[in-house]
Hints:
Blueprint: H1 6-14, H2 39-44, E1 53-57, H3 64-75, E2 80-85, H4 93-107, H5 117-121, H6 130-137, E3 143-148, H7 157-168, E4 173-179, H8 187-192, E5 196-199, H9 201-204, H10 208-218, H11 225-235, H12 239-250, H13 255-261, H14 265-270, H15 272-278, H16 283-291, H17 300-307, H18 312-322, E6 326-328, E7 336-338, H19 340-353, H20 357-371, H21 375-385, H22 388-404, H23 408-416, H24 420-423, H25 427-439, H26 443-456, H27 471-481, H28 487-500, H29 508-521, H30 525-539, H31 545-561, H32 565-581, H33 589-601, H34 605-622, H35 625-641, H36 645-660, H37 668-684, H38 690-699, H39 705-712, H40 716-730, H41 735-745
Parallel strand pairs: 1-4, 1-5, 2-3, 3-4
Antiparallel strand pairs: 6-7
Helix pairs in contact: 10-11, 12-15, 17-18, 17-20, 20-21, 21-22, 22-23, 22-25, 23-25, 25-26, 27-28, 27-29, 28-29, 29-30, 29-31, 30-31, 31-32, 31-33, 32-33, 33-34, 33-35, 34-35, 35-36, 35-37, 36-37, 38-40, 39-40, 40-41
Amino acid sequence: MRATTAAERTGLRAQRLAPPLLMTKLHPPPGREQTVPRDRLVERLRAGPGTKLTVVAAPAGYGKTTLLGTWREAEETRQSVAWVTLDERDNDPVVLWSYALEALRRVCPTLEARVSTEAVGAARNLDLVLPQLVNELTAVGEAALILDDFHLLSSGPARESIAWFIEHAPATFQLVLGTRNEPGLPLASLRAHGALLELRADELGFTPSEADGLLNDRLGLGLERQDVDRLVERTEGWPAGLYLAALSLQGTEDRHLLASRFGGGNRHVVDFLVDEVLEAHEPSMQALMLRSSVLDRMCGRLCDALLEQEGSADQLAALSRTNLFLVPLDDHGEWYRFHHLFAQLLRVELEHREPGTAAVLHRRAYVWHREHGEVDEAIRHALAAGAFAEAREAIIGSWLLMASAGRHATVLAWLDGFPPELSCADPQVLLMKAWMRSLAGDREKAASALAALDSLGWRDGEPLPDGSSSLEASLATLRACFPWGDVGSAYTSALQATALQKRKSPARSRATWARGMASYYRGDPEGADRWFDETVRTGRPAGRWLVTASGLAYRSVIAGERGELQEQRALADVAAGVARENGLEEICGEMHVAVGSALAAEGRAEAALPHLQRGVEVLRSVRQPLELAMALIRYAAALRATRRRGAATAAIAEAKAAIETCPDPGALVDWLRALERRPRAHRRYSDLSERELVVLRMLKGPLSERDIGRELYLSYNTIHSHTKSIYRKLGVSSRKQAVQRALSLGVL
């Protein structure tokens, strides 16, 4: 098997599917001249031994982000502190941990060696990445990770992964959350064990002394202490309210009178937004603030496109110097965002002043992000604009690449952004949902999307979003690729798919892969090998790296079953290379099974175990019982070979459970029975060494003893000595008798 050249490897790396990270999310807020030192809170945040989680929870405007930024600066001399500002896209656990790992790598360089953003970006099952991260953090020493705006994570896989991480993180690691509401994590247990540190709104409110520092020392208002006390009382110490009050006080001569009349709680403070904050600026600056409020983050060029003007960068820089509600996102003064509460208020005022303008602005933002290659943000703005045709077009152009990178949650969030009445009437959206739900292992919702598609039909001339030759071909390929344990049905669908998918169709390699899978689990390895060979030949030049890596892996397994150990190892190595160079190591579980099987066939069962275990873990997440049972059977065999009988029994039990869920398990039943027969033979012939077992397997094939020696890099005399020992231990006198005896006893 030819090795890839340096040029090819460069091309493969260019094909990496993980979208670029927004580095602005990894920047903590810079210090501001108006910031008031809050030493009492910084001291409260100094966690004692055993604190695993710190929660800073309060409504908007309580200075959580500023406080955490100050604490981070104070802690940097003692420990490494990473920062991530979360947004709704981080509900995709792959995206969440891509940012978290990149942030940690920046402050903990020793994580660079084995934990990469590329690997996480392709993760299908984050449980494979988080244990590795936990293990590496034990060697880092004191470290912390701040996740700001944690309230933007809804309940689901992302929060579940955070809960797992908190439970397993080393004692030297501290997770710090800034959130507007309860984080939905097991706080009671952490609290009971003294592992939780909490700061709430009652502690975050400004004291009279801190308010005096803001209003008089920082902003120079010259207020009497009684006026400061009154403002603290009226705003209940709400920092944002005090700042809004300060903005209004700056524009009046009789500050004592205004301070005495200022009241009514936080709602009254918000009412000052229009009269005192917006109206304090020129009309052009007001327009910039109102119209850019539709953006999650902004820069001068983007705002120019949004407002159809020039000079927005200078306006943003000027606004940043005078308005604490505009937060810089980098050290270069290029990217900003509004304080979340302030942005919400601006959007309300925008709709009040210019009804319907928000949709126009979102459409302009969509165009700008699309032209700059920022697909995710472009799609989000298109959906917000109600430009569903444009959103659908953008999704069609990127969903397969995103799916191959394991970002199912992101694509499904896009698709769920369509109104129900539209998505239920759009066959393209329904077909993409069916594929994505299947890839995510959600059988019921995939079936629901297919049922809706069946009742709806397909419009004449409508292109297929997956590149299939026809709707019939696409559905046949989908059903063949995701059989949910039904080998007979998979084979029938695969026959149809390979007949319907044209030779030059982009979906052809998926159809041939499904045909190979169905053939293999029917017990036809030779037929399967031919279809997998076609998959590799067509998939590689088309850039279909997932089916290419999987096809190579299955060809390796089949070569091993034929006793072709050298071919088995070569194919497994190429499969691993394709997966590694394209960020598919945490998606392609069968690749890990192939590598482990090749090692086991060489008599290196101990070395095979971690690869087989990893393959099992990945395939569990796919929720396809055929592949999982196959991996478990091979894993159990390696466990037995290393005398781990308890673990082998557990793996066999899980394989049985998986097979029992299959409507038609095909050859899996026979494979499992063969494995269950082996312990008796192994006990009887336990004196066969691992090397002798390898030679015995190769005696089953056509190679001579001299050729076997070349395959195993051993001398002819060594192989001949092993062969004589095998004959003696099995009680036979010829090669043919040895193979027959080993087969009858289940040794082979």
